[in-house]
Specification:
single chain, four-stranded mixed β-sheet, alpha+beta, 104 residues, 3 helices
Length: 104
């Protein structure tokens, strides 16, 4: 039996990482980060991250430990991610980053 947390453990705290590297910042990542931080999300940590390696598709948001990627996130869409995914447990399908979550 492993002591390492797995993706299926409901008690694993969630973390939202918002890329703050060059391209994402130019695309409005600071405002996206501010929008997440303005909301009180129980048991969720919101952090600024370095480059997530998906330049040109940002602002990028990564939800851990779910490994769910959202691309081209706009500040006005943050509430939807919080309500539907972080609080409701359902991915926001139309916002999923296509490279890691292909449709179909």
């Amino acid at each position: 039996m492993s002591n390492f947390p797995t993706q299926n453990q409901p008690d694993t705290p969630k973390c939202v990482q918002v890329c703050q590297y060059r391209t994402c910042r130019k695309q409005g990542a600071a405002e996206v980060l501010a929008a997440f931080r303005a909301l009180s999300i129980p048991d969720v940590t919101v952090t600024a991250s370095g480059c997530l390696g998906q330049c040109g598709n940002g602002p990028m948001v990564l939800v851990l430990p779910d490994m769910v990627w959202y691309g081209r996130v706009q500040p006005q869409e943050v509430t939807r991610i919080v309500e539907q995914h972080l609080l409701g447990g359902q991915k926001v399908k139309h916002m999923l980053y296509y490279r890691f979550h292909p449709q179909g």
